[in-house]
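Hi, here's the filled form for the chain we discussed.

Project: internal
Contact: R.S.
Residues: 128
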Amino acid sequence: MRAAIESRAAITEAHDLYEHTLIGYVESLLDVPALRLLDELVPDHRTRIQTNNLAGQCEACAAGLGIAVLPEYLGSADRRLTRVLAQQVSLKRSYWLVVPRELQRLPRIRAVSSTLRAAAAAHADPTT
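And the returned structure, exactly as it came back:
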């Protein structure tokens, strides 16, 4: 990621991202509006590297291929990545945990649900 940033124009505002290689989801598979983060940040952008999941975006970014919009819990945990526009950009999303009613009381389901809730609480934005 550092190489991708250092080899191009400085990034001081969202508009500067137009001068960089952007990494995002495969456009033809992206039917979830909440995942259109790049559309929100840099309208009419051209995503040059497309993957169908966050892991692929993170790895492409870490390999220095370009810049991706990643969840903070993923990006901040990877020392290969450099955060840009931390003070200028904040994109927030909600996550849902959906469990069929008939499975909610199973110990394994309760254990996974509890673990996921604890992980989300540990990474919650204290300002919300």
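Let me know if anything looks off before we file it.
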